[in-house]
Amino acid sequence: MNPNDIKGPYNPNQSKSQPKKRGLELGMEQLADVKRIVAVASGKGGVGKSTVAVNLAVTLARMGYKVGLADADVYGPSVPKMTGTEGAVPDVEVYDEMGYPLAPDAPITDDCKEVMIPVEKYGVKWMSIGYFARPEQALIWRGPMACNALKQMILQVKWGELDFLLLDLPPGTGDIHISLVHDIPLSGAIIVSTPQAVALADVEKGVNMFRNPQIDKPIFGIIENMSWFTPAELPENKYYIFGKDGCKVMAEKYSLDLLGQIPLVQSVCEGGDEGVPAAVEDGPVYDALKVAAGKLGALI
Ligand SMILES: Nc1ncnc2c1ncn2[C@@H]1O[C@H](COP(=O)(O)OP(=O)(O)OP(=O)(O)O)[C@@H](O)[C@H]1O
Ligand SMILES: [Mg+2]
Q1: At CA 92, angle to CA 87 and CA 95, rounded to 5?
Q2: Cα separation of 226 and 262, whole Å?
Q3: Angle between helices 175-183 and 143-155 (to 10 degrees)
Q4: What is the pTM of this model?
Q5: Are strands 92-95 and 113-116 parallel, antiparallel or unpaired?
Q6: 3-class SS at 11?
Q7: Closest residue by CA, ligand 1 atom 15
């Protein structure tokens, strides 16, 4: 398949000789009815940021909030797989320069704006670059292109009325993050970590990034993931395989709220692989995230 045939407006392989892209002057209009934009971040990769973001979105939706989630990890989008929406192709609506829907037979000009319709499942509106690229296609983009694609995933999406728009950030504290927190009207961030010392060292970087005077966004708190291991056949047992209460100590050190502790359980991993987030059903993940979601809910 020719990489230029990829459906949707975000073809990373589009050659320079192709016609100018339309509707890329991104404004904040689509965020007008979004009450809170919350970044889910971590300094370190693989601590369960996407798992927490997806399950937190589902938990908020189950509690009656209107929720959207933008998969801002343009290098490794995991939302389509984790939500079982792989293969979905978001609709695109086209508006004329006055902001009216374009008549079906009208020509699309450079002044038209294109807006993507998020994919809805589990009561949450999902958007991900993964809907526009085939899974095997590595997204190897230079910084500015990645930043643009990321902004499109947030600003060029018809979110409608939302209580919360969660952003699942890529790991780290690099250019993408700085550009994002600079250009998107973030309400604040949640930091995800495991209790392990090496992961905690990276939390420090994440905290420092959001508290940097040039960024200066509130951190709503830390969610500790993989806090303990509980085997399915011994639900009362807790094994602290990554150490105990690491995030509690960290939260105290940085005067942050410990929003919740999520155990390492097989159902989380399986749910992620099968596209059914664990929080869709009652259980330890929903219980842990209900507390975090309640604290977020108090913000609006
Ligand atoms: N509480 C948990 N219990 C069991 N497995 C978990 C738990 N949290 C995450 N996992 C598993 O760990 C792996 C990494 O999780 P995830 O992809 O959410 O991490 P991430 O921080 O988003 O990674 P990346 O930095 O690559 O974006 C996944 O396979 C996921 O299913
Ligand atoms: Mg991730």
Answers
A1: 175
A2: 6
A3: 40
A4: 0.88
A5: antiparallel
A6: coil
A7: 48
- The 10s digit of each residue's pLDDT in 18-36 is 444 444 457 888 999 999 9
Q: What domains appear along the chain, each with residue ranges and CATH number? A: 29-87+125-297 (3.40.50.300)
Tokens of 169: 């950030």
List, in sequence order, every residue forming a beta bridge with 157; answer none if it has no partner. 116
Q: Which of 3-17, 60-74, 89-103, 131-145 has the lowest mean pLDDT?
A: 3-17
Beta bridge pairs of residue 101: 95
pLDDT band at residue 152 using 50, 70 and 90 as cut-offs: confident
Whole-number Å distance, alpha carbon 170 to ligand 2 midpoint, is 6
Q: How far is CA 271 from the centre of its chain?
A: 17
Check pocket membership of 79 for ligand 1, CB cut-off 6 A: no
Between 63 and 180, the more confident residue is 63
